[in-house]
Amino acid sequence: MKIAVVGSYGAGLTMRVPKAPAAGETVSGGLFDSGAGGKGSNQAVGAARLGAEVALLTAVGDDEFGRSAHELWRREGVSAAHVVTSGAPTMVGFILVEPSGENRIAIAPGALDELDADAVDAFRAEIASADVLVVSMEIPEEAVVAALRAGRESRTRTLLNPAPARPLPDACWPLIDVLTPNQTEAPVLLGLDEGHGLGDEELARALQQRTGGTVVITRGGEGALVAQGARVTTVPPHPARTVVDTTGAGDSFTAALAVALAEGRPVDRAVGFAAVAGSHTVSIAGVIPALPTRAQLNALIGSAS
């Protein structure tokens, strides 16, 4: 079972605050922590912890953050042979987390701006040998399109996690086998304004018409909607013990979904497995510490049955 991941790496600089500051306001009493982040790296580590063989394509700087990234991938068993080392700084994300677990994130892309189609071309053999290709969108559009096209040409199943969401070029839509937006991202992909008035099922159908594949809309505590073929089905959530930090939940869900699909599970069952992973992740502070192992997910699934 092999997963290829094309996405971002960044250092996450996190502050837990009593409340998010308003414009011009200073809030004291925060607690600071730093750690590895970036959607692509998180998804790669998450898939490796669930037993997949994982190869990652991203870009980092020749700096302390970049060196820490390579140490993380070595420790977690993620192949980083094709990772690009740039003259620009490694991406940094500044994350504010409120007591409710909700978060606000600002990103300086740095080295990721240099991830291009040539880098993807050098990664083609990894994509071709994978069961599932996972692509996320904290990287230049050129790299997103090139990766999806390489997946389609290699007949590797493509999974696009469209975060952070932006309208997709027309060339992208037929290259996507599985699309996984959340409720906020779905209308952005369709170019809709805030007052669009569409429900989640209508959004899922509209997205499915564009891809011709499978659409999974994640809905946090309400579970997920799966549009596949002529059906839209609801996958219930797996209740979290407590909500501490939602920062890595989407990446954990994506990693587990990719692994379950690579194992040959039907989509609805794969989404259910991914929901358990997301539930585990929100109950633990930090992203990397919260990504579950297979044994942890098996224990959660067993306790719920």
Structure description:
The protein is α/β, with parallel strands linked by helices. It is built from 10 helices and 15 strands. The protein has helices spanning 39-49, 64-76, 117-122, 124-128, 141-154, 185-189, 200-211, 249-262, 267-282, 294-304, and strands at residues 2-6, 10-16, 31-37, 53-57, 59-61, 78-79, 84-86, 91-97, 103-108, 132-136, 157-161, 178-179, 214-218, 224-228, 231-235. The strands form 3 sheets. A 9-stranded mixed beta sheet has the order 6-4-1-10-11-12-13-14-15, sandwiched between helices. It has a 4-stranded mixed beta sheet with strand order 3-2-8-9. Strands 5-7 form a two-stranded parallel ribbon. Strand 13 and strand 14 form a beta hairpin. Helix 9 crosses helix 10 (294-304). The longest helix is centred in the C-terminal third of the chain and has 16 residues, at 267-282. The model has no long low-confidence stretch (mean pLDDT 92). Its main location: cytoplasm. ATP binds at residues 182, 218-223, 250-251. Homodimer.
